[in-house]
Amino acid sequence: MQIVFFALRNFNRARTRTWITVGAMAFACAIMIFYASLLEGWLAGMEKNAVGMDLGELQVHATGFRADPDLYKTIVEEESVLALLGSEGFVATPRLYASGLAAAGNASSGIELRGVDLVREPQVTALNVHVWQGQWLEEQDQAGVVLGRKLARILGLTVGDEVVVVAQAADGSTANELFRVRGILKSVAEGVDRSGFFMTSATFRRMMIVPNGAHAIVVKRQVPTENLTQATARLARLLPSYEVRNWRQLQPVLARLFEMSDVSLVIMLLITYAAVGILTLNALLMSVFERIPEFGVMKALGFSPWGLFAMIVAESMLQVTVAAILALAAGLPLAMYFSHHPIDFSGFVQSSSTIAGVALDAKWYCVVTVHSVLLPVLFLYLVAGLAILYPALKAAMLKPLAAIYHR
Amino acid sequence: MNNTPLVQLENVSRIYQQGKVQVAAVTEFSLDVQAGEFSVLCGPSGSGKTTILNLIGALDEPSLGRVRLEGRDLAELGRSDLARLRRDRIGFVFQSYNLNPVLTACENAEFVLALQNIPKAQRRQRVMAVLAEVGMAELAQRRPDELSGGQQQRVAIARAIVSHPAIVLADEPTANVDSATADAILDLMVRLNQEQGITFLFSTHDQRVMDRARRLIHLRDGRLEHDEVRG
Known about the structure:
The complex is a heterodimer of chains A (407) and B (231). Chain A has helices at 2-11, 15-55, 78-87, 121-124, 149-155, 190-195, 201-208, 228-238, 247-250, 252-289, 292-300, 305-340, 370-397, 400-404, and strands spanning 58-62, 90-104, 107-116, 131-134, 144-147, 162-168, 174-185, 196-200, 216-221, 242-246, 343-344, 354-355, 358-359, 363-364.
């Protein structure tokens, strides 16, 4: 208790220096809370685009389909698989894939035809609300299709334009049909943007002569907190004759990028706090050196070396605590504000920019999490704790007599 | 009855290294101090008075010889044990008061009691009694920069005696105060010695202190010149 008492008394001793040090720590910590929240938001946006629009959390395929996507490699018992997944607490939607060629005017481009279940797909992904221009698919509009953003640009198409598709149907015949562009998606991922050609599953089945089965079943956990690896293993046990992969396995580069984000945050914290650490060390050294005679007297009167060490650490930790409170008071509202008002990088980021094949959203939101708030604060304590070690140890090791007469 | 002297110095030498030169501050010095004494180490500057006080106060270590306090050889104690010994058994009065500038007179005086983990109510009661004893009760809530030199020295005396130490070591306690204050401080110390039996050992070349001493230990060039016990 005495140590805390002395720390409190000494806090305001060199007022200007103390508050400059506290201010620098608080500023750095507030900025890092904002940065960490922005990074969380950026990653959440990427994950939303990759997982929430395209990949889903898990995917089930017929054996060999992933290595060699083939129109004939389907999950034949599609409905029973969907029923089983539903009974085990998963939400799932079937998808159909085929390759083809789209042409409009003088332009043409290779496409990936995607037949989607209009009832189930919105339960798993948010593609239906990710439309940039026009509208999402409708069962009644069998000739209406939705295109990826880049594909529309390549073909020079806008909403309402006609587009011809040529593909090889499952029976070997040439599938040839005229569609009308019903909608164009916002950026999702490189593959979807460049070649995504969405139609209803009924249209796909009729055109490609695939009366039943599905090429993929895209799955979402009903309980988002369930561990993804455990959910993957559970799903694999349920469907032993199919290939089950989670999004991290389907997009390992993206998964690695997410894992590396913590490292990049720590590096940023270290760089930012290094400057704060030097400032803190300098202030604490000054504080210790100018009080050496006083420490000598305290030791002469019976203050133990470790008591003195603890007192100096307590003084430093008190400053850090005040800095952390100020940082939270400034950084948290800042991050909260930008969680509702995104920073718009449209002027700097091209609409088609991608990282690891996933579209970059030009609007960056902050996402305030326990992680984004606590990590900068904990690092502040860590850096200040390291900075105080040398002056505190130096004071603890002082010989009382030499300290009393130190000038 | 225990006849062990409170302080024993046996053939103590203290040699300092100043660059390439060795300087002997104290040479083969022996001394016994009994409990209840009011003694003065006197002699010209550089005669080794302060060095001997520092050795007795466990603030310095002898180069040769032994220092014992209440029979305990200080050389056998570690840093923490020495800190405890200083806290519990020795009171210090410094020439320049050395009060903590962020603490009030009352808090300065109770510093040692706080280190001894004595409950706040009990230590406040003891401190106020001692501050009253030294005539500082009215100014208990003032900080050192709000007190005169004499008042600060009174607080330093209160700090030195409040924990009932075995001995109070006072290094030139009157050097920085005017004559009237010096007399008042010395009268106070004499009274504390006579009424409470507190042992005082001074280092000084102030005649007023020497006039009040019952034992004068004369030093010259770090050696004992003459040990004079008065009636």
